[in-house]
Amino acid sequence: MPTKQHIGVGLVSVGWMGRVHARAYGAVRVHYPDAPAVARLVSAADVSEDARTYAADALGFERTTDDWHDVIADPDVDVVSICTPNFLHREVAVAAAAAGKPFWIEKPMGRGSAESADIARAATAAGIVTSVGFNYRHAPAVARARELVRSGALGRITNVRVSLLADYSADPRGALTWRFQTGLAGSGVLGDLLSHGADLAQYTVGRIEEVTAMTERFIRERPLPASSSAGHFSLGSESGPTGTVENEDYAALLVRFASGAVGVMDSSRVAVGPHAEYALEIYGTLGSLRWDFQRFNELQIADSRDGYRTVMAGPGFGEFSRFQPGQGTSMGFDDLKTIEAQLFLRSVVEGRQLAPSASDAWSAAEIVTAALRSAEDGTWQPVAAVDGPTTTGE
Length: 394
Prior knowledge:
By secondary structure, the chain is an alpha/beta fold. It folds into two domains: 5-135, NAD(P)-binding Rossmann-like Domain (Rossmann fold); 137-326 and 356-382, Dihydrodipicolinate Reductase, domain 2 (2-Layer Sandwich), CATH 3.30.360.10. 33% of the residues lie in helices and 24% in strands. The protein is built from ten helices and 17 strands. The protein has helices at 16-31, 49-59, 68-73, 86-98, 113-126, 140-151, 182-185, 189-204, 333-350, 358-377, and strands at residues 5-12, 37-45, 63-65, 79-82, 103-105, 130-132, 157-166, 208-216, 221-223, 242-244, 250-257, 262-268, 276-284, 288-292, 298-302, 309-312, 381-382. The strands form three sheets. Strands 16-15-14-13-7-12-11-8-17 form a nine-stranded mixed beta sheet. Strands 3-2-1-4-5-6 form a six-stranded parallel beta sheet, sandwiched between helices. A two-stranded antiparallel ribbon has the order 9-10. It is globular, with a radius of gyration of 21 Å. The two termini are 36 Å apart. This is Gfo/Idh/MocA family oxidoreductase.
C-alpha cells in the first residue's frame, strides 16, 4: 500500500463549525481509506479557554493558542481551516496565502465581493489550492441533479428556483450579535444563506450573469448581547437595551443565466416554520427535478408527462457509497463536510483544484453584491465575472 502523506492541520476558531471541520478530517480516514493523505490535528486557536480545552481534550489537537497568528506561523501546520466570524476571514486567509498554506474557509468568504476578490487573488498569486464550505453541493442527490442537467437529460434548461428559508433569527429576542452588523458580517441573509443558493445554481446549471433584487429587514431592533460570548442562538433581555439590525432579513432575486435560462431565488433568516428549507428546482424542456435539504437523501425527478417520481440517493449518486451501503439508509450533514475535507486534502496532495474554490466563493459574492446594488436602485445589475480556478465546470 502506498505511503500516505501526513498533512498538519491548523484550526482558527473552535466554534461549532471549527468542530465540524476537525471531525471531518478524522472521518476521512474512515470513509476514504484510499485517500492519499491523513490529517494530523496540530494546532487550534481560539480566544476562549473552554474552546481551547475542548480542542485539545475532545478533538485531539496537539497544542492550542489564543493567537491565530501562531497557527499560521507553526512549521508543523501545512493547511489551515478558517472558521472565524466573517470580519476575520480576509485577514486570516490572506496571511495563510502569504505563508504558502492552503486553506479551507467557511462562507461567506468575505464581507462582500471586494474582500472575496482579495482572498481569491491572494490564493492564486500564492499558487495554493483552497476549499470553501459550500457543503450542500456535495449531497449525492445534488450530484445526480448536476449529472442530469449537464448530460442534457432534462433538455434545454428554461427556469430555476432556489429558496433557502430558515428560522434561526425568527425570535425578536435573539441577541444583536455580529451577524446583524454590516461592518462585522457584511450582508445579512444574502451572504449567510443565499450564497449557498447561488453556488448550487451555478454548480448545477451554469453562470448567473444578471440579477434584480429586493431586500427587507423585518426585525429592525434586537436586544444587545449579555456577554461577548453570545452566539447564533443566544437570547437577549426583553427589558434591556437594544441596537439596530443593519443588514437584511430577507432577499428575493430574479436572475438570468449565461445559457439563457432564468430563475427566481429567495431567502429568509426569520421565517416562522421552516428550520432549514433549502430547495433547488430545475426545469427543462424534457423534464425537471426537485431537491430539498430537509429530505436531502431524496431527489424528485419528472422525465415524462406522468409527473414526479421520488428517487432515493444510493450507490452511483455522488459519494453515497462511501457512507452507506444502499438506498434507504440516510447520510447526514457532517458527511457532506467529510466529502469536502477529502476533496481539500486531495487537492493539496495532487496540486489541483478539486474542492469548491476561493474563486467559486468570489463568484457567489459577486451575485450578492449585484443583488445589493439592485435592491438600492431597483434596476437589473450585471454580475461581474471572476478569475482564478473554479469548479463549476464552466
